[in-house]
Design a protein that fits this description.
Number of strands: 0
Shape: rod-shaped
Oligomer: single chain
Distance between the termini: 99 Å
Helix content: over 70%
Largest sheet: none
Strand content: under 5%
Keywords: Coiled coil
Order of helices and strands: H
Structural class: mainly alpha
Radius of gyration: 29 Å
């Protein structure tokens, strides 16, 4: 019975260590995903600004054509 308790304690410790390693991996993965999400949002903002600028240039060009 004492041996079984020691074995169980070792197994618990092993699982705790594995869980800690897993948490570190998951935290790293979450950090990476947050970084990718930030970059994706930035890309969307940049593209929206580019589209806005193109629309503005188009409107200005149309106004110039109308004046001709």
């Amino acid at each position: 019975c004492e041996q079984e308790i020691q074995n169980l304690n070792r197994e618990i410790k092993r699982l705790e260590n594995a869980s800690e390693e897993e948490m570190v991996k998951l935290k790293s993965e979450i950090s990476s995903l947050k970084s990718r999400l930030y970059q994706a949002k930035k890309n969307v903002r940049d593209k929206e600004k580019y589209i806005f600028d193109l629309k503005k240039r188009l409107e200005e060009s149309e106004e110039q054509v109308d004046r001709l």
